[in-house]
Amino acid sequence: AMNLAWENRAVAPWAAAGSRAILTLNRLGRNDEARRLLAQLENQLDKAHFVTEAQERLEASGHLLLRRMIFMRYDGRAAEAAQRAQRLIEQMLALPQTDRHLLATLYTDQATMFWAADVYETAVTALQQAIAIYADLGDQYLETATRGNLGIVYWSMSRLNDAEEAIRESLQMAETFNARWRMMNEMGNLCAISFSRGTLAQALNYTERHLALAQEADDAAEIDRANGNRAMALLYLGNFATALPLLEESIARLQSLGLQLQLAESYIFLSYCLDGLGRRAEAETAVAQAMEIAEKLDSPALQGLILRCRAHFAAPTEAIDLMEQALTQARQYGRKLEEGRCLLRLAVLSSGRQRDKLWAEGAAIMNEIGAEAWLDGRSPENPPTVALIL
To answer: Cβ distance 107 to 130 under 8 Å?
Structure first.
């Protein structure tokens, strides 16, 4: 398809075919090949001086930018990717006519970049733009699927009920159309929501279904995500010995895929697992590895996770300081679940009336957002320790 389109100097279809090839390589975990092909196509388009129509060149650039954003996110440049998308979107909107499906897809992927950079309200706005375009085009499937993307942003904002409603709506539509990738993705998203709520049996159920669909599709990234979720469930349940090999396998896979953000998160999970097995020195080394990666990334959510984990290993006075930093950051970015976790952890580190006050504040937030299951049978003397970190 690429060769045929290029021979006929149809660069927008050529770029669309190339974009699909790059995405396929990405989903198969062959990211080095995907990056090389993307660089080749970008260079080829740049030298295609026969393209004189602004619309055709912009649309070709849009198809390739969709894939460039993937790797910019992997490299910790999500905010920069979102701005690049914004410039291209503005140029496309200035044209008399343009490919509106492509425009909606650019809004959707731009929202992913804003979400990865923890800029949630802007991500919501971009997704609403995409949803409006799909609705206007009468594309019911993509309209509903994009509402599923909106759901994962709501999840990050701790709007768990709104998130679950949107994702279930997307899943139902995917089942109607037998859209296997979307079904797989939404199973993973429902697992994430279940973790946030503290409903671990439900999370494990979603994880098994997610993994089966990912293996059926041979989707490397989703297989790793599902295995990572299973390891998380085992960590939450305190089954450290079973979780350890899964985490080690996941870390090796993430290194080969070049997924730096997820790699840093996995080192944090590994640190808690190793500590649970009594391997404190190795656990602290894993934290240091996560911190080294995080220095190169622009992710407030990751920084908050690292602060909470460091507090776990610190002496009480330092732990309080680290948790107060994490609390300030959680409030700054509107992450209610993390705010609740920080308050509960600070309660555990405090005493007397201050302990009771902080625990009550944290518990109120967990109840407000639908994460009260974490507190069943718990108290400052018997806290859900791992839930306050991860």
So the answer is: yes
Spatial distance between the Cα atoms of 173 and 330, rounded to a whole number of angstroms: 34
Residue type, 308: R
Does the CA dihedral 260-262-266-267 come out positive or negative? Answer: positive
What the block records as the tokens of 158 is 């701790």
Give the per-residue SS3 of 333-383. Answer: CCCHHHHHHHHHHHHHHCCHHHHHHHHHHHHHHHHHHCCHHHHCCCECCEC
d(CA 356, CA 347): 7
Measured at the alpha carbon of residue 382, what is the angle toward residues 377 and 384, in degrees to the nearest 5? 75
Strand partners, 382: 379
> Residue 386 and residue 389: Cα distance in Å, rounded?
5
Tokens of 164: 């679950």
CA-based nearest residue to 142, from 129, 124, 130, 154 = 130
Q: Give me the residues paired with residue 379 across strands.
A: 382
DSSP string, 160-203: HHHHHHHHHHHHHHHHHHT-HHHHHHHHHHHHHHHHHHT-HHHH
390 residues of the chain, pLDDT tens digit each? 999 999 999 999 999 999 999 999 998 889 999 999 999 999 999 999 888 888 999 999 999 999 999 999 988 899 999 999 999 999 999 999 999 999 999 999 999 999 999 899 999 999 999 999 999 999 999 999 999 999 999 999 999 999 999 999 999 999 999 999 999 999 999 999 999 999 988 999 999 999 999 999 988 888 888 988 899 889 988 899 999 999 999 899 888 878 888 899 999 999 999 999 999 999 999 999 999 999 888 788 899 999 999 999 999 999 999 999 999 999 998 899 999 999 999 999 999 999 999 999 999 999 999 999 999 999 998 888 776 677
CA separation for the pair 118, 375 (Å, rounded): 27
Distance CA 151, CA 169 (A): 10
Q: Which amino acid is at 167?
A: I
Amino acid at 232: M
